[in-house]
Amino acid sequence: MIAIKNERELVAMRQACKITAAARALAGEMVRPGVSTKQIDKAVHAFIVAQGAKPSFLKYHGYPASVCISVNDTVIHGIPGGYTLQDGDIVSIDVGAYYQGFHGDCAATFPCGAVSTQARKLIDVTKQSFYEGLRFATPGHRVSDISHAIQTYVESNGFSVVRSFVGHGVGAQLHEEPEVPNFGAPGRGPRLLRGMTLAIEPMVNQGVYDVRVLDDGWTTVTADGKLSAHYENTVLITDGEPEILTVAEGL
Ligand code: MF3
Ligand code: CO
């Protein structure tokens, strides 16, 4: 069953998503050489709590931090710690906030200092692939129409989409139905309806799409050691254009 959010629920969810987006922006502004990933995690935690919200990821299935910070060949679920960001790194920040019964979930990859042309292209293609998918996030389409648009755009730019992790419904739970893959044939999966809220989140690799999870059980890296980028927003299906809920404006 895919939850349909009513207007009252959406008021709370918009607020949760605003806090989440502001946390992403704050983290992104901290990305520069010499800053440790732990410092970013601490600042984001303090910000979310100051808003009267809770970090969605902290203790989720035992996850030990408020943010996922995934540098260079780390795809997702990088655990903040002692690593100090270096000039030329690309830094994926994924954050969630829980407020008045609802979660927001969003991510973006930020360049640290001066990054290579290929790294810049990877970041840009990943973000644009989200917008290519978003064009199909309307009633009358099915979930995999989003998936197919993302994959087509990414691959036409010479990159690959991660298969073993996918986007998802989001709302009262961080992960709800349906799964939203970033690959696949169009015309499959549930039909999209007004009031559904989806986390659309392409994870894009420079080389092969295969990934491997490190012994900590979280850190997910590219199998070939090449770069990876991530971009995610929480999106509301409406009768018209989809509404991106994870926007920081107005907080
Ligand atoms: N944004 C991630 C996702 O959509 C959530 C991180 S998983 C956690 O799956 F365990 F770290 F919370
Ligand atoms: Co997500």
What does this protein look like?
There is one protein chain. The chain has helices spanning 7-30, 37-50, 117-134, 143-156, and strands at 54-55, 67-71, 74-76, 90-99, 102-111, 160-161, 167-169, 176-180, 197-200, 203-205, 211-213, 220-222, 228-230, 233-236, 243-244. It has 251 residues and is an alpha+beta fold. It has one domain (7-244): Creatinase/methionine aminopeptidase superfamily (Creatine Amidinohydrolase). Strands 8-7-9-14-15 form a five-stranded antiparallel β-sheet. A hairpin with a 6-residue loop joins strand 14 and strand 15 (243-244). Helix 1 (7-30) runs antiparallel to helix 2 and helix 3 runs antiparallel to helix 4 (143-156). 2-amino-4-trifluoromethylsulfanyl-butyric acid (MF3) binds next to strand 4.
Number of helices: 4
- Specify the CATH class: Alpha Beta
Main sheet summary? 5 strands, antiparallel
CATH-level-2 architecture? Alpha-Beta Complex
Bound compounds, each kind once, are: 2-amino-4-trifluoromethylsulfanyl-butyric acid, cobalt (II) ion
Task: Report, as a whole number of angstroms, the end-to-end distance.
Answer: 32 Å
The quaternary state of the protein chains shown equals single chain
Number of strands: 15
Q: What portion of residues is helical?
A: 25-40%
CATH topology: Creatine Amidinohydrolase
H-E string: HHEEEEEHHEEEEEEEEEE
* Overall radius of gyration: 17 Å
Mean of pLDDT? 98
Give the low-confidence spans: none
> What is the total number of structural domains?
1
- The gross shape turns out to be globular
- The strand line-up of the biggest sheet is 8-7-9-14-15
The share of residues in extended strands comes to 15-25%
Name the CATH superfamily classification: Creatinase/methionine aminopeptidase superfamily
